[in-house]
Amino acid sequence: MVRDFSALSLSSIGDTRFLLNPESMQSPPDLYSPAMLVMTDFLQSVPVTIASDTQVDRALEFMKNQQVRLLFALDAGGALSGIITAQDLTGSKVLSYIEQGRLSREDVSVKHLMLPISEVQALTLDEVERARIGDVIETLNQSGAAHLVVVDQGVAGVNRIRGIVSASNISRLLHHNYEVISEVGSFASRQWVLKSIQHR
What burial class does residue 118 get, using C-beta atoms within 10 Å of its C-beta: 0-12 exposed, 13-18 middle, 19+ buried? Predict the structure, then answer.
């Protein structure tokens, strides 16, 4: 072995019985916990993308296989062109487009249903870093969305999509159905929801 290194000392594990994990060192999250806990950070997770010309049924199948409810659509040149959600692919939007455009279902693709990137509203990373999970829930409720895109600035001030926050992430983290959590409204006046989450 290279002479720059030396072996470390080994010792008996003895009567050690405690297995450390992140959750054991943290208080259970609640509505007042940092919003960053529910953000999917694209510095740590790869965003799921799809070609904007993908037919809607194939797009839905791909979404199910990837176990996500939002896809980032890329144009033929690989540039970000929009976002599409499970609701877009399974709701009345598909039938409405078929009726209005007089296209067969086989001819309807992601680009026909997606929200163009120029129309996407987003939170800034700075806002999320200062916010609580309850603030995110209130924003989701007011926007009527199940997902919120988070943007930051990279080198030379270039805007980039840094991540997303979603109702499904909130449900997973708090181990509570999002529809119930979102009924909190005024957090101070609806303590029964807070208690049900904090003492689950």
Answer: exposed
